[in-house]
């Protein structure tokens, strides 16, 4: 079984095809201005915090009381961000940490979102892992999404380049 990290869960939520391609080494996000912008926001906000590297995942930081923090450059909260934080909570819990909850920081809009960590959230995180693993194990790429949803995605050329 592949180690499922936060990026896998985020890609699953965004587009299963993106996850499938990523796991096969297709990485156009390295040339994406949007990804570079997100990394710059991450590098220049909350600079006194340190990443927590779990191997399969990298958490932006964890505060006293086991609160998981994630920073996003997006101007709009999304379910994929919450799914990623729930996954981090699950990974920490499996390592014996009594996680309280998660917080997603959106510095561009000066907003935070609290991500609940309870039995329901744990079930959602475990199901996301199972779904990600199922996508990864597929022999063929999942179908591409409707094109309007692909705007801004660094994988758009792969999916729509011949259209």
UniProtKB/TrEMBL annotation:
Residues 6-160 form the DUF83 domain. Pfam families: Cas_Cas4. It comes from the Bacteria. Gene3D superfamilies: 3.90.320.10. This is CRISPR-associated protein Cas4. It comes from Streptosporangium algeriense.
């Amino acid at each position: 079984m592949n180690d499922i990290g936060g990026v896998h869960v985020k890609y699953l939520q965004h587009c299963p095809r993106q996850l499938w391609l990523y796991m096969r080494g297709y990485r156009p996000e390295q040339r994406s201005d949007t990804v570079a912008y997100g990394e710059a926001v991450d590098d220049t906000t909350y600079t006194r915090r340190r990443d927590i590297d779990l191997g399969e995942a990298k958490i932006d930081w964890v505060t006293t009381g086991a609160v998981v923090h994630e920073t996003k450059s997006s101007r709009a909260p999304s379910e994929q961000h919450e799914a990623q934080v729930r996954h981090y909570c699950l990974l920490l819990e499996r390592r014996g940490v009594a996680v309280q909850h998660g917080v997603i920081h959106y510095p561009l809009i000066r907003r935070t979102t609290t991500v609940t960590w309870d039995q329901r959230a744990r079930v959602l995180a475990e199901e996301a892992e199972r779904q990600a693993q199922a996508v990864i194990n597929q022999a063929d790429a999942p179908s591409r999404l409707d094109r309007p949803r692909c705007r801004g995605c660094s994988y758009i050329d792969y999916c729509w380049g011949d259209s």
